[in-house]
Input
Amino acid sequence: MSTTALSIEARQARVTRWLLLPGIIWMALFLVVPIAMIVYVSFWTQTTFNISPKPTLASWQQFFSSSTYVDSLWTTIRIWLIVLAATFAVGYPTALFVGLFVKSKTLSTVLLVICVIPFWTSFLIRVLAWRPMLGKEGAINIVLMKLHIIQQPIEVLLFTELSVIIGMTQIYCVFMVGPIAFMLARIDRNIIEAARDLGAGFGRIFWKIIFPLSLPGVVVGAIFVSVMVLGEFATSGALSGRKVNLLGNIIVTQVGSLKWAMASVVGVILTVVMGIVIAGFLRIVDLKREL
Amino acid sequence: MEQRFLKSVLGVYVAAFVIFLYGPFIVLTILSFQQGPDGGPQFPIIEWSTYWYQQLFGLTPPSRIAPLPFGDALIRSLILSMMTMVVSTVLGVMSAQAFRRKFKGSSVVFYLIVLGMMVPGVLTGLGTSLLANNVIGIERHWYTTAFATHVSYTFPFAFLVMLAILNRFDASVEEAAWSLGVDPWTTFRKITFPLIFPGVLSAMLFAFTLSLDEFPRTLFASGRDQTLPLAIYGTFSVEIHPNIFAFGVLTTLFSFALLSVYGILMGLSVRRARRQAMQEDIA
Output
């Protein structure tokens, strides 16, 4: 009896292995190896039109001695922090309404679907749509002038860092709303009732109960937003008139002029920044446990 | 009292939020009806017309503004998304099925898969093209290198969807089948798969839409022939005309159609499951 039990166990283990193998191989070949390649090629020797595997630190030295490149690192971090804060500030109240205040399940589903519908427009066209919104003769200026709030059109709206931040906030804020609303909806209403019965005001209930319980959602949302903003180049390219250069923009221009080694150096730096950010977030919350 | 006040304030806020979310799309839709071919992609509207929609379908006489070169790119993108959808859903179902048993190194494998959605696309794209172009020395194509990066991006989503579905799955029906001597593969085909089918549909939908709109990975990894997002990106560098806005409106409507089909399929499968359950109750 025990031998058959063991063989069933062994058989199941074998099935598990075969089920996992294709996925593991795919991710190893097309995700881990490519990232390793970025690290590897960043030490290659670059000449004007050619690149050879002879190891050198030249591209690394070039990166850290050029203020354009180093500035792009700081710009990336600055824009990432601003957009992260903006998506949180814009998204949290919405999530609070959808996840906690709306009693009807249907209404909250409808609201979430309303939030998701804009994603059915191509990402690049959504970026492009901000141009006629923000321009000197754009929709925002027209509306504000009609309402007599301003006399002169605001010109700093388009082709500045501000336009990049506005665009990214609108495009990514829904990634904050979703996870936070999900966590808020899971809160046991009896806890809130109990706190209220004991005489706690809404502010106290929010800071002591609601916010801490929604924190995993905030972290998941922050990971989504960070991954997308740190790797961005299309929004910054299209809305800043090439004035805002993120690390992603540098990679694109370097690849465009076949400077693979420099593109790889920037890639490694982006990977490191990414790794630190995600590791930091994952220390706050265990992603696997929250599923 | 305090709570009711707060709820109405938040309600007003959410209305403003929705306007913020939809503002660009509304402006885009308005401008897609700009007069053509001389009207530009900005206010004011010179005269309302459907010129740019007609131009998309080649119904207008040739003018100084060339029609968008999107035909081939659209077909390529649809084929690529189909391929990505099938492969990543199969991989997702297999891996999630494996995760129902505890095994050594499960959290390493979990993070290896989830890594695919955490690495920015520009890095996967760059790495894959370095691997193909510089290290191995093969040509890049949308159906080879770009396809590989698409799957390594959508597979984690399919995996997580299936994991969530299988976590809530009642294993006793499978055990019943096994104890009756049905082999595991038949059990999966006849029992497990029909039950998790709504989840499979969601995973497919996720993979398809993510792949259809995927841009940064494709930019470096796809070689000479463009996919749809690359063709759209190509119009960024030249002058923009309202035809791109008309195209955006049409693709959004197409997505709506797709979503409706998904909703109907989902509704049907839920209803069928309910009917079967009822029949079993009667029996």
Notes: Chain B is about 75% helix and 0% strand. The first helix of chain B runs from residue 2 to 32. Residues 124 and 217 of chain B are 6 Å apart (CA to CA). The radius of gyration of chain B is 24 Å.
